[in-house]
């Protein structure tokens, strides 16, 4: 049994957390861990009195929060696309680059040419680096195969990864091949029962799959027992976010072009809105999700990195910082979006908050209070990362 003492402890008290729900901010706080599980939380004086014989880890100058959960990544691919940044700066859009054979199509080529073992090594290194920034659970998608055998290969690699943190697997139906679109959808429908992932996700957008195709794929996935996620309204609004009314979608992601009136549909459905602020930078777009309407209707907001060849950021701290400065979330909202609500978007209710009975996935931060998580930009502020009570990384 271990007591961790901290200058400040911050956690949501319920999942999902909605705007203005209660939050615990405890100064001179302590958490008690036994066998990888939180068994007590309170002030230092209370905990010391209740557990006089426990070992003490004293971080009395630091902040403690739940471990970060990254609910949207594309970690499994080979190659890079740094040259496309120059093209964007010269005025080409992401859509134009993709339609000319770049973007996702370019990454598919690199990934197909890379062996299973090399891809596994790449994936494990990326997870390790993400962990160093405080991520204790990560979602990872397929999506860079673009033919069914390749996508199932990527799903097998995902399931074989040896990771210091928990990996939630997603079969992503990413983008149609340049030819044979209708046949590809038919092949996807046949392959879904064999994916073996936790989630199925579809990129529903102007350069990807339309609403009808997306509906058909997600219905099949739900029938086969998969949980559902959705890339919606990232590049254009073509009706993708409307699907939350029809299907049990756990998380609708991006939402840069979602009409404010559609937020009511998201609120009624219970779907989490997962926002990806790093992507706003990498797309060089002025579009932003309707955060004020989400607050007004109390839609649970999560945030993620969207790590991909187009959005090369493994650091959830950066997602927190940009959620504040680009999207207008408060530092407290951004922290909860990266912990309790990110976990809930994956329907992982055993983590993401600091309460007795929850997994002891925690981060000790080299800052005195939660405001600093957004106030200071650009430094790795994680001092100690704990997975099920075990230290993963000291700095």
Helix/strand order: EEEHEEHHHHEHEHEHEEHEHHEHHHEHEE
Q: How much β-strand is present in the residues? A: 25-35%
Radius of gyration: 21 Å
Give the count of helical stretches: 15
How many distinct beta strands?
A: 15
Helix- and strand-based class?
alpha/beta
Biggest β-sheet description: 8 strands, parallel
Extract low-pLDDT stretches: none
The averaged pLDDT comes out at 96
Portion in helices: 25-40%
Span from first to last CA?
23 Å
Any idea what the shape is? globular
**How is the largest sheet built, in terms of strand order?**
5-6-7-8-9-10-11-12
Report on this model:
- There is one protein chain.
- This protein has 395 residues and is α/β, with parallel strands linked by helices.
- It is built from 15 helices and 15 strands.
- The strands form 2 sheets. Strands 5-6-7-8-9-10-11-12 form an 8-stranded parallel sheet. It has a 7-stranded mixed sheet with strand order 3-2-1-4-13-14-15.
- Strand 8 (199-204), helix 8 (211-223) and strand 9 (227-232) form a beta-alpha-beta unit.
- The chain starts with a strand and ends with a strand.
- The model has no long low-confidence stretch (mean pLDDT 96).
Please write out the topology.
Elements: E1 2-12, E2 23-34, E3 37-43, H1 44-50, E4 55-66, E5 68-70, H2 83-89, H3 94-99, H4 104-112, H5 116-132, E6 135-141, H6 148-160, E7 166-173, H7 181-191, E8 199-204, H8 211-223, E9 227-232, E10 249-254, H9 263-269, E11 272-275, H10 277-283, H11 291-296, E12 301-303, H12 316-325, H13 331-337, H14 340-345, E13 362-365, H15 372-375, E14 382-387, E15 390-394
Parallel strand pairs: 1-4, 5-6, 6-7, 7-8, 8-9, 9-10, 10-11, 11-12
Antiparallel strand pairs: 1-2, 2-3, 4-13, 13-14, 14-15
Helix pairs in contact: 5-6, 12-13
């Amino acid at each position: 049994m271990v007591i961790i003492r901290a200058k400040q402890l911050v956690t949501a008290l319920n999942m999902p957390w909605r705007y203005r729900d209660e939050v615990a901010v405890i100064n001179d706080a302590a958490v008690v861990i036994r066998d990888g599980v939180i068994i007590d939380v309170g002030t230092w004086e209370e905990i010391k009195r209740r557990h006089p014989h426990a070992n003490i880890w004293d971080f009395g100058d630091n902040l403690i929060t739940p471990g970060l959960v990254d609910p949207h990544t594309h970690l499994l691919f080979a190659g890079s696309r740094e040259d496309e940044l120059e093209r964007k700066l010269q005025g080409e859009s992401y859509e134009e680059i993709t339609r000319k054979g770049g973007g996702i199509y370019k990454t598919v080529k690199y990934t197909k040419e890379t062996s299973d073992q090399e891809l596994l090594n790449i994936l494990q290194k990326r997870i390790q680096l993400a962990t160093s920034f405080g991520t204790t659970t990560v979602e990872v998608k397929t999506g860079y195969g673009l033919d069914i055998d390749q996508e199932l290969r990527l799903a097998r690699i995902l399931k074989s990864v040896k990771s210091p943190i928990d990996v939630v697997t997603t079969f992503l139906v990413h983008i149609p091949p340049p030819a044979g679109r209708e046949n590809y959808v038919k092949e996807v429908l046949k392959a879904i029962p064999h994916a073996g992932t936790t989630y199925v996700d579809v990129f529903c957008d102007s350069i990807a799959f339309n609403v009808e195709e997306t509906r058909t794929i997600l219905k099949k996935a739900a029938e086969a027992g998969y949980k559902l996620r959705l890339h919606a309204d990232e590049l254009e609004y073509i009706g993708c976010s409307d699907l939350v009314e029809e299907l049990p979608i756990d998380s609708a992601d991006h939402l840069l072009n979602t009409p404010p009136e559609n937020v009511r549909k998201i609120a009624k459905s219970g779907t989490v809105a997962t926002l990806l602020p790093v992507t706003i930078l990498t797309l060089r777009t002025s579009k932003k999700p309707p955060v004020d309407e989400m607050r007004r209707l109390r839609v649970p907001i999560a945030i993620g990195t969207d790590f991909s060849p187009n959005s090369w950021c493994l650091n959830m701290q950066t997602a927190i910082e940009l959620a504040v400065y680009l999207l207008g979330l408060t530092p407290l909202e951004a922290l909860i979006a990266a912990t309790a609500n990110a976990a809930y978007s994956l329907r992982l209710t055993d983590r993401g908050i600091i309460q007795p009975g929850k997994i002891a996935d925690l981060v000790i931060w080299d800052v005195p209070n939660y405001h600093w998580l957004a106030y200071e930009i650009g430094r790795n502020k994680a001092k100690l990362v704990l997975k099920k009570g075990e230290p993963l990384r000291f700095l």
